[in-house]
Design brief:
The protein has 111 residues and is mainly β. Helices cover 0% and strands 57% of the residues. Strands 2, 4, 5, 6, 9, 10 and 11 form a seven-stranded mixed β-sheet that branches. A hairpin with a 6-residue loop joins strand 4 and strand 5. 30% of the residues are buried.
Amino acid sequence: QVQLVESGGGLVQAGGSLRLSCAASGSIFSISAMGWYRQAPGKQRELVAAITNGGRTNYVDSLKGRFTISRDNAKNTVYLQMNSLKPEDTAVYYCWANGYWGQGTQVTVSS
């Protein structure tokens, strides 16, 4: 079992920044990749970014350049730095690791 706890969501004005954190615990030895997904109201959950143990990253094309995923293996934590936020980035952001999900953290971007 892997437990994931997200933090860092909140309300921000358009153009602002937020950094999300996700701390993993439990059977962390089994984690090979971690990532972030998001789900906006009325929409399907979609991949935002992912990162492997070795640091290889993958981003959805539309977010490249604004969002950056990083990982601290010593702290078993993955981060999502979000810059130049837009109202359409409003969603619940979920941490993911090897099929496990966090509870989600709300990000709201006001115009």
